[in-house]
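Ticket closed. Logging final result for Cytochrome P450.
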Amino acid sequence: MLSIVLTICSPVALFVIYTAWSLFSNYLIARKVGLPLFVIPVSPENPLWLLLCHYIIPLLSYVPFGNGNFTRFGETGWEFREKARVHIEYGDAIIIATPGKNWIYMCDADVIRDIIRRERQGDFARPVELLAMLDVFGPNISTMNGADWQRQRKCTAASFNEQSNVLVWTESLRQGQQLLQYWKNNTSVPGVSTMAKDTRTLALNVLVHAAFGKSFDFQGTHDKKITSGPLSYRDALALILENAIAILALGPQTLERLAFIPPLGRLSEAAKQFRKYMLDMFEEYTHSNDSMPENKLQGNLMTSLIRASLTDKLITPDEAIGNMFVFNFAGHDTTSHSLAFTFMLLAAHPEVQDWMAEEIRYVLGEKQISELNYSEFPRFVRTLSVLLETVRLYNPLLSIVKGTETQPSLLTVRGKVVTIPPHTRVLLNLNALQTHPRYWGSDGESFNPSRWIHSTPSGTSNIHDREYLQMNEHGAYIPWGEGNRSCPGKKFAQVEHVAVMVSMFRDHVIGVKRWEGESAENARERARGALRDSGMKLLLQMLRPEKTPLVWERRV
Ligand code: HEM
Ligand SMILES: *[C@@H]1O[C@H](CO)[C@@H](O)[C@H](O)[C@H]1NC(C)=O
Ligand SMILES: *[C@@H]1O[C@H](CO)[C@@H](O)[C@H](O)[C@H]1NC(C)=O
Ligand SMILES: *[C@@H]1O[C@H](CO)[C@@H](O)[C@H](O)[C@H]1NC(C)=O
Ligand SMILES: *[C@@H]1O[C@H](CO)[C@@H](O)[C@H](O)[C@H]1NC(C)=O
Ligand SMILES: *[C@@H]1O[C@H](CO)[C@@H](O)[C@H](O)[C@H]1NC(C)=O
Ligand SMILES: CC(=O)N[C@H]1CO[C@H](CO)[C@@H](O)[C@@H]1O
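Final structure:
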């Protein structure tokens, strides 16, 4: 009997002892660093904890002494709730000791710039093991460092060119109009409660068009039919992205072995289809030739990658497929969550809609939306500032992770030299940086896109021809990262966002569906509540946007 108890308990006991020991030795290391120190008894990188923390942490507040540092910093995404508060209270750098690694959070624009600049020298590299799971479809840009990465980055940067931006522009205009139609047509339901789902669909359609040159009409959540037979390219990708965590956690091989479990079988099928579609595209490309007529849309991301692989021999076909997956993965949730945040923010701020629509109407003039040329994109400064302001407050990646490897590195924080020990994570706390009163003044947490806009004085020309974007943000604004490792999809995201706004807000306004007898102000307050109710899943997102239905009306 005792031996049974022992065999069951000893692995658990060993784990507990090992965790306690790791935490203790990390604590000793962290103490020497000399930054304000917090202790968390679990590793934020533990996948089980990532899943469970959102349930466990809220319960802790009911336990005596539960309201300590663990509840404050234990849940992933705590940066969003804290914003700059923790740094105002304790300083620009804090260290959190955990059983895994020690985590340093940084909120000083100068130090952050220094860290990014020194990434190239190898002082603060992106920890590739955190992203290694993205390798499911082959090696890729995000999981590489050093020479391999530079070779890849050349090809990928070349893929995100103005040709692909034209595809993003035209398709986003088209999808935006269809989405508006869909939302307006459905008068049978009390407002649009599928907003966040529908922005996912739109983001996917734009991505598929820019990546592969394929076009799909927008289908709302209610129109979707379950199809049997082989999945279309788009549906395979949709399924993969929706279940990204499972695929990443299991990997394609394990997934295939577990395919007898029906939902996993379908997922495994989608992963296989996705790979097959991409291999087919390679085939097509080898049998065609570059001088062929424009029967396929040129300049999409896939053809750029295939060309880099087959014609220029810069990357292997496996690397091309791996990158394709990473583009889709990195470009989908980021843009769809940003759109969802923007719709909710605009519903809470009708005055911003009026301000933005003024510009849209001026630039469009008498033109149809579908006639709008990509060359007009730079004229939409107000419209773009709305996105800049959205991702200032709701940046999908709350923190950018860097870290030291086998060597310690020195940092100067506010005149004090700090030695960062080896194997330490260094997090650039963007959400804190982008709201800190030192950089943003007292209204750093409010949504005010006009803070980005200036205008050249005098002149008889129209105000909309004189306005330009500029922000004296003291380097405290990097939602897309900065430097060599920054987001290659930045312009992509901006072009998509502006085109969607243009196609929807010229003639329409969005608002919160009012409950019976509710005042407009109370309804807007509910939208602000939905925005506050955001948290970290894979990225920062609203947790329950469907509880706050939105309505569209014609602009009067
Ligand atoms: C609002 C939209 C977006 C935001 C806020 C965003 C933000 C970011 C950030 C913060 C990084 C990491 C930078 C770093 O580590 O320094 C990143 C990387 C990346 N993003 Fe985006 N992104 C967005 C949209 C997109 C889109 C639309 C695509 C592609 C279609 C894309 C593709 C990528 C890729 C491939 C990387 C990895 C780059 C590398 O490892 O060198 N992103 N993004
Ligand atoms: C949280 O950590 C800070 C800094 O180390 C410490 O001063 C404080 O006492 C801790 N709070 C609790 C409740 O343990
Ligand atoms: C409108 O919404 C209802 C219920 O949510 C759905 O059954 C119906 O198919 C939708 N109609 C359209 C035209 O999308
Ligand atoms: C490639 O293009 C050239 C010139 O247009 C044409 O003569 C040739 O037949 C093409 N080759 C293939 C395999 O299509
Ligand atoms: C759009 O703008 C580009 C560049 O200014 C120009 O070459 C092209 O002809 C324009 N297209 C249309 C349809 O006006
Ligand atoms: C990026 O890396 C290249 C070397 O690959 C270097 O020449 C360039 O200056 C770097 N750019 C930045 C902004 O650090
Ligand atoms: C699956 C796979 O090939 N992964 C590769 C990703 O990139 C790293 C770094 O170049 C390789 O070591 C892996 O083998």
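The longest strand covers residues 424-429. No further action required.
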